[in-house]
Amino acid sequence: MKLSFSPASPFARKVRIAAIELGLIDKIEFTPAAVAPGTVNEDYSKITPLKKLPVLITNDGDVILDSYVIVEYLNEMAGGSLIPDYGPRRWKAKTNHALLNGMLDSMLLCRYEKMVRPQGLQWQAWSDDHWNRAWTGMARFENMPDVLNGPFDISQIGLVCVLGYADFRFADCGWRKAYPKLDAFHQKMLERPSVRISVPPAA
């Protein structure tokens, strides 16, 4: 299998963590891809018109999009337990992940607004609104002991990627002081090889 990725992508990190946990990491060839806003990448656009990371190309040549769908595919392949099979736990995990993915989307948009949009064209209220979505999302998970203390699954992987991206791109945001339970959770998660190995490089 081939996975398009960037070491800086929290979405690709999610898949890398899952692949390590499921024992599939050695079956995946990692292919670097550049998908910066406003930059043409015709070859990658032929793989996915959305031009987003990551994308998994299976051994049969099928293209699988979206980090959650890729994790679900790998989880099924390995017979894993990162995503509950059925019942209330499954829908809770999928809902948690949808929130976490939206938080990452908002953080990424904040990053683009500050670093990519031309000077003088930034929309501060728009950026503040997106940051608030991520920040209040953290507040919600601060008070979710079922996620913080539960089994290692897609919810915990997603939360690790949110907090890691906050460290990576918004190092001065103060989330550790504001959310001590998330800080303790993150420190505990860093003891897992899959989490520690996949930490993005220094910004």
Notes on the protein architecture:
- With 203 residues, the protein is of the alpha+beta class.
- The chain has ten helices and four strands, in the order βαβαββαααααααα.
- A four-stranded mixed sheet has the order 2-1-3-4, covered by helices on one side.
- Helix 1 runs parallel beside helix 3, helix 4 packs antiparallel against helix 5 (124-142) and helix 4 packs parallel to helix 7 (154-169).
- The two termini are 29 Å apart.
- The mean pLDDT is 94.
Q: What distance separates the N and C termini? A: 29 Å
Class inferred from helices and paired strands:
alpha+beta
Main sheet strand line-up: 2-1-3-4
Mean pLDDT: 94
* Unreliable residue runs: none
Tell me roughly what share of residues is in helical segments: 55-70%
Number of strands: 4
Topology summary:
Blueprint: E1 2-5, H1 10-21, E2 29-32, H2 42-47, E3 55-57, E4 63-65, H3 67-78, H4 88-115, H5 124-142, H6 145-148, H7 154-169, H8 175-178, H9 180-189, H10 193-197
Helix pairs in contact: 1-3, 1-7, 4-5, 4-7
